[in-house]
Each structure stands twice: as structure tokens, then as C-alpha cells.
Amino acid sequence: MASSHSQDRCNPWLPLLAGLLLAAVALPLFVRMPLTNDAEMYDLQADLVRRGGVLYRDALEPNLPGVVWVHLAARSLLGPGSEALKVFDLAVFAGILALAARLVVLAGGSLAAALWTTVGLAGFYWSQSEWIHCQRDVWLLLPALGAVTWRIEAFHAGRALSHARRLGAATLEGVLWGCGVWLKPHVVLPAAGVWLASQLLQAHPASDSDSAEAPGEALPPDHALRPFRQQVVRSLWEFGGLFLGAGAVGALGIAWMVRSGCWPHFVDTAWHWNPDYFAAGKAHWTWDRFVPMVLRFFPWFGLHVVALAILAGGLWRPAAGSTTITPSRRAVLTLIAACYGGWLIQSFGLQHLFDYIHAPAILLAILLVSAWSLALPLPLIRLAGMGIALLAWWWSPMWQPARLKLWSVCLRGPVTPAVRDRLSHFRNPNRRDLERIAEFLRGQNVSEREVCFYNSDFVGMYRQMGLLPPTRYVYFYETVRFLPTHKDEILQAVRAAPHRFVVTDVLSAGIRADRMERLGPNGPLADVTAQPRGWTAGYPWSFPAVYRAGTYLVHRIDGPVTELSLPKTELPPPRTPAASPETTGNRSLTQHLGTSSLGTSSLGTSSLGTSSLGTSSLGTSSAP
After folding, report:
1. Which residues sit opposite 535 in a β-bridge?
2. More confidently predicted of 238 and 125
């Protein structure tokens, strides 16, 4: 594909057939994979809103409400169930694929090249763990790539746009970026990068030597001369439009928050809770967490090396002396690179070290490497990209026999908790044990707010059992562990909570799995007290455990709550032990290694970790 002529001879049927084969194999498994804590948490918040609840007051949430709005819309359109949300996720991802294909074509790629790019993007996304599916970070690519595509179309129009039309085009782009901000405000950095790159492109047009147009392709009317004053005026009109569009979306969102009554609670959360939350996230940026994440993304993470080489080698003037690239294609390549660069900065510089946060940057790296290698004679870049793609195809767990055995079950249904455990890339939570917990609680005739699911791995149990959280601290363990300065507020809420039971995971307290037998066998327990030595005495460990399923305990609240149990010292980085063959049977080596950041989810946005394979000892005693 060294030239457009060779690309034109590429048969689009081959990538189309490859894509159909990939979809046929991957989608039944993908749709049946379990939802993660974040998706369950936002579903729960959407349910609270539908029941007349108030966001931020009824559930502690450090993020903007955009993702809850998305869940409200998705559930209203498609109904309940994990499969319904997965179908919505597929629809969003299909939009991302369509925009990526459009950008490849605008960069000079053929239809076959665009299709191969979508196959690569889908191959990455569908082969990854459930922790990057149904996540707002990936959904954020839809408005972001839409805004980039729209800016490219406006850039091609050049001075042909009047000031009014330029303002209108920029306003629509601002609407797209504004929608993205409600999902995650970090998208401002890619937006700024794209806008600044477009201004530099307009201020410094390509010279004749590196901007030869293909036959039949006309230069913008003002290509030869763009006076500085006119450029400033155009930039002001565009910036005004961006501000107008994004501001309108922001105003509508704030109006909803004020009308729903959640605005003062949002302000309180942002002012009093979020500083501690962000500080906790920064503390977990360690090599012990970074290296396992890279291994889980192997070999796709290697595309960052190729993409960064592209950025370093020629972001603003990608083909000096080349006669194959046109100004329009140069603009496409530069804006894709600017979006990727901005995304990389915000994900690594401002966010947590979790897979779903860093998956979109890999998707953009795939798009960037594909677009640049197709548009420019870069054999080394093309060879590196193809090598990584082939290695990823061979390494993917999608083709492992143990996983393919589940294909017909996923296609026909029904899908049991045991099947979902085998589809999951991680051991925690164990859905079969959670089903046993649910059966026990149903036998106790629990209702409304009578159960606290202590760990975030259990958050989906509220909706599954038709219950509500007894306090606003839905991710209770994570809130206590990572925001201990608020322990008095949390304790007051627990004392007022009308719950009868609390469900815990002893691994989260650093209790080793091999010490679980001290508690007794699975099933009802004779009021055993499990007090981890690494934690102070208090709720929930001071209350007797009356039922066990695996590493999960049900504690009966048989008296007043006087203290919260807090870690005595900083616990080691959370780790989820590698799953045994009988629980997985389909993971690749990298998915067994270092699953430390994927055991749980914290505060509705990131997995700060509940599953911990620590070294604390377990003290047990019979209740008097």
C-alpha cells in the first residue's frame, strides 16, 4: 500500500470477510460476558433517579453525571439485563468504527484500508477483558472522533466558509466536545490539541514541494496567502463557536442538575470529597500496577512506541519533500496525531492506572499508525504495525479452545453464573458464590435497605435482588479505605442505616484464602467472628458471620455500630490471585499476571482495588 494506486487495487472483500468472521466468533462471547462494577454502579444510580432519588445525595459519586444520563437512555431504549447494555455498547463502538474508517479514507486510504483498520480496532476491543467494555472512557471516543471529523471537513472548506457558517460549524463541534465533557472532562486536552493543531495548519500552509494535489483535487482558495489578521479573525470565530456549543451543552446539563435537586450535593462532593479521592488515585501509580497493565494489553501496548515515533518524527510537517501527500491529507494525519497526543497526556498524566482508562489511547494508536502508514511511504512503521497486529491475533484469548467451547452456549443461552465466571478474564467476583449468598439472603426475607454489600465487587447484587444501598456510600469498603478522613460522616450514616446484614469479601482485608477454613465450611456458620489482624476492631468485622460462600461472608448486625474497622497501616497493592483452570480455562498468560488493578471498582470511576492477597492473619472466635 505504498501508493494510492496500489491501494485502489486492494480487494475490500478480504477485510470484509475477516471482519465478519471476527464478529461471528467474538460477539456471542462478548455479549454474554459479565458487566463490571462501574457499569453496575451507574445502572444502580440510574435506577435511583428513576425511583425519584437524587444523584450525589443518595450515592456518593465523584464524577459528572453524563454517564448516568447515558445509562438512563440505554436502559429506557433496551431494557434491563447485561446483554442489553452490551448491545448498546456495540452500537456505540460501531459508531466509533464508522468514524475511524471515515478518517482513514480522508487520509488517503482506500475502502479496503479503512475496513482493515476497523478489523484491527474491533480485534483489540472484543478480545480484551470485561473491564474495558461498557465504560465511558471508550464511549468518549464517539463524540471526540465525531468532533475531529467535523473539524477536518470544516478545514477542507477553508475560506469558502462565511463567518456565519464558520461559527455554525464550530458550534456543532463544540456541542460534540461538550457532550464528551459531561462524560469525562479530561477530553478537554484532546480537544485543545486538535484545535491548536488546526490553527497551526491554517497559519503555516504546506509549501508547493510537499503539497502536490492529486489529479482533480483543488487547493483551498486562500492556500497561497493567508494574512495574519484574517487568520486571527477566523480563529476567533471558531473559538467563539466552540465556546458557544460547549457552553450550551454545559448550561443544559447544569439546568438538569439544578432542577433534579442534585446540584448542591454535587458541589459538596466536588469540594469536600474529590480532593481525597484524586490523592488516593495518584498514590496508586506504581510500577507494581503499571507493569501488569502493560502485560494485560500485550502486544497492543507496543503500538504506543510506534505512534510516539510518528509524533516525534513529524507531527506538523509529516512528509517534507514528498509528492504523495496533499494538504487535505496532511491535515487529517496531523489532527489524528494531535487527538492521540492529547489523549495520551490526559490518560497518563491526570487519570488512574486502570485498563479501561488506557484502552482508548490504544484504539487511537491503532488508528494513527494505520492512517499514517497508508498515506505515507513509511515501510518500517507499516512493518511494525503489521507485526504487532499479527502477534495480537495469535495471542488473543478469543481463539483459545476452552473459550470457543462456550460459543454455542452463549449463542443459545441460558447463561448461568458458572458460564459468566468462565467468560470473565478475572477470578473476582465469583458469581457462583454470590448466587449462594443471594439464596441465603432471600431465605432471610430481606428487603429494601436491609443489606449492605461491603465490597464494590458486589454492587450488582442490589439490582439483582431488588434492594437499595442502606447508605450513600455504595462502594463502602473503598470509601472507608481510601477516604478515611471522612470516617465520622460514614460512621454516622451506618448508625442510622436500617440494615440487618452486611456481605464482605475477606480477601479485601488481606486475609489469605488458605486461612478461610478456620471460619468453617461453606454454608451456615455458628456465629463466627472474623477479625483481620491488619484492621482495627469495628464494623463490619466485629459482627458475627452467619454464612460463608467461598471467600464471602454474611455478617448479622446484632447490635449498635460503635466504630468503623479501618486498616492499621497502608495495605499492600491489591492483588487478585490467578484463577484456576476450573474457573477460567481460557485465559492467556498475561491475563493471569498481575491482575492487581482489576479486582474491584472504586467510587464509581476506577478500580482502586478490593481483592487483596495479603499476609494478614485471621483471628477467629465463637461469639458468646
Report:
1. 567
2. 125
What count of residues does the chain have? 624
CA dist 55 and 267 (Å) reads: 12
Helix axes 66-78, 82-106, angle to 10 degrees: 110
Distance of CA 554 to the CA centre of its chain: 31
Largest Cα–Cα separation, the chain: 90
Q: SS3 for 128?
A: coil
In terms of phi and psi (left: phi > 0; alpha: psi -120 to 50; beta: otherwise), the region of 527 is left
State how far the Cα of 556 lies from the Cα of 233, in Å rounded to an integer. 69
Look at residue 131 and tell me whether its pLDDT is greater than 70.
yes
What pLDDT sits at residue 570? 57
3-state secondary structure of 322: coil
| pTM of this structure | 0.85
| CB-CB contact of 24 with 410 (8 Å) | no
Nearest to 182 by CA among 76, 103, 66, 261: 66
Helices marked H in 158-227: 163-183, 188-203
pLDDT at position 117: 94
CA atoms within 13 A on the CB side of 587: 25
19 close to 224: Cβ distance less than 8 angstroms = no
Distance CA 469, CA 467 (A): 7
Mean pLDDT value of segment 385-409 = 82
What is the spatial distance between Cα 553 and Cα 501, in angstroms, rounded to a whole number?
10
**Distance from C-alpha of 424 to C-alpha of 54, rounded to nearest angstrom:** 33
- Beginning with the edge strand found earlier in the chain, give each strand of the sheet holding 501-505 in spatial order: 451-453, 501-505, 552-556, 545-549, 523-532, 618-622
Domain boundaries, the chain: 4-263+287-399, 417-622
H and E: helices and strands count for the chain: 26, 6
